[in-house]
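user: Kindly work through both lines:
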Amino acid sequence: MDAEGRKEFVINFLKTAFEEKDPEKALRLYVGDYYRQHNPFVPDNKEGFVAYVKMRVAKNPNRRMEFKHAFVDGDYVILHIHHIFAPTDEVYVEAPNGLAGVDIFRLEKGRIVEHWDVLQPVPAQSMHQNTMF
C-alpha cells in the first residue's frame, strides 16, 4: 500500500468506527492482530476500543469529522482532524466550536496496530487570525 492508500485506510477506519457507528466492522476491516492504545482515557486492546467507541457514539451521536491534513511517515499515519458536534451532543457543552485533534496510527503488515492522540477545544476567539486548521 502506498502513502495515499495508507491515509485513506486510516481515515476509513475512523469513519467506519465513529460515523458509521460500527467499531466491530472497523476492527475487522482495518486492525491487525492487536490494537495498542496510548490515550490514557481509553481502554487498551480491541475490546477497549469497541467499548470506548460505543460510549462516545451514544453520548455524541451527531459527531462529524473533517480531515484537514494527513501525513505518512513510513508505517505511521498522522491525521489533523476537526471534530464537530451538534448542540445535543455531550461534548458540545465543553467544545461548542468542536475539538482539534491529532491522531497518530502505526501500521504493521498493512493493518492498524497502535494509536496515540491529542485533543483540545477550538476556542471562540484567538489571539491571532490564524486558525487551528
